[in-house]
Amino acid sequence: NRSLVVALTPATGKLDTLLGATQLNSYTVSRNGRTIAWREDLNAKTNYDGGPTNESRFMTRVAGGAPRVVMSSLRGVTLQVADDGEHYAYAKDGALFAATLSDSAARRVIGPAPRAVPDSVRATGADSSARNREERYTLVRIAPTGDAAVASTRAGLWLIDLASGARRAISTVTDTITGPRVSVAEWTDDGRTLYLSYASRTSWDRALI
């Protein structure tokens, strides 16, 4: 599964290698072509025995520089890089985080804060029950411009400002069995317009919103 990423100049046919042979899951190149971010597959072989799988890490490199590990493990992480190639967001343990590739660390935007749980509380399951009552976010789509994201909770879909953490409901869930299914179809390049697909669960009724 090793592959490399190159940049082609159509006028001259020149090829510039942006990333040498690597086990790639996915990659994004910034619009100015200076930065590449990629998800590197760390699995040495196919796992036929069960147990933990799909170990990977998040890497970046500025043109002419050395590769840098942004996140050493993506286990339990839902990660997306914006189309601008500079911003990224991820969800972990019910919280939403955001950063740029030049930041030293991501910051929590919204969702429950990590906290240590005493063994006595963990044994009784009390903390688990409390955390289940907290609103937990799943990353659905980051804006191409990297300044906003759509995330889901049990209550529906939310548009979230990644700078301030402010949120606005764009679809609410009233009934998970018979209520309509709403999902993100596309986001325009300028980040100003969001298209949603709507599908009824009880009749042939579909729409683009």
H/E topology pattern: EEEEEEEEEHHEEEEEEE
Spans with pLDDT under 50 lasting ≥5 residues?
none
Structural Rg: 20 Å
User: Strand order across the biggest sheet?
Assistant: 1-2-3-4-5
Question: In summary, what is this structure?
Answer:
With 209 residues, this protein is mainly beta. It has helices at 119-124, 126-133, and strands at residues 2-9, 14-29, 35-41, 56-62, 68-71, 78-81, 87-92, 95-100, 107-110, 138-142, 148-153, 156-161, 167-172, 181-187, 194-199, 206-208. Strand 6 (78-81) and strand 7 form a beta hairpin.
Describe the structure.
This protein is mostly beta strands and 209 residues long. Helices cover 7% and strands 48% of the residues. The chain contains 2 helices and 16 strands. It has a 5-stranded antiparallel β-sheet with strand order 1-2-3-4-5, with no helix packed on it. Strands 6-7-8-9 form a 4-stranded antiparallel β-sheet, with no helix packed on it. The protein has a 4-stranded antiparallel β-sheet with strand order 10-11-12-13, with no helix packed on it. Strand 14 and strand 15 form a beta hairpin. The radius of gyration is 20 Å and the shape is globular.
Fold topology:
Elements: E1 2-9, E2 14-29, E3 35-41, E4 56-62, E5 68-71, E6 78-81, E7 87-92, E8 95-100, E9 107-110, H1 119-124, H2 126-133, E10 138-142, E11 148-153, E12 156-161, E13 167-172, E14 181-187, E15 194-199, E16 206-208
Antiparallel strand pairs: 1-2, 2-3, 3-4, 4-5, 6-7, 7-8, 8-9, 10-11, 11-12, 12-13, 14-15, 15-16
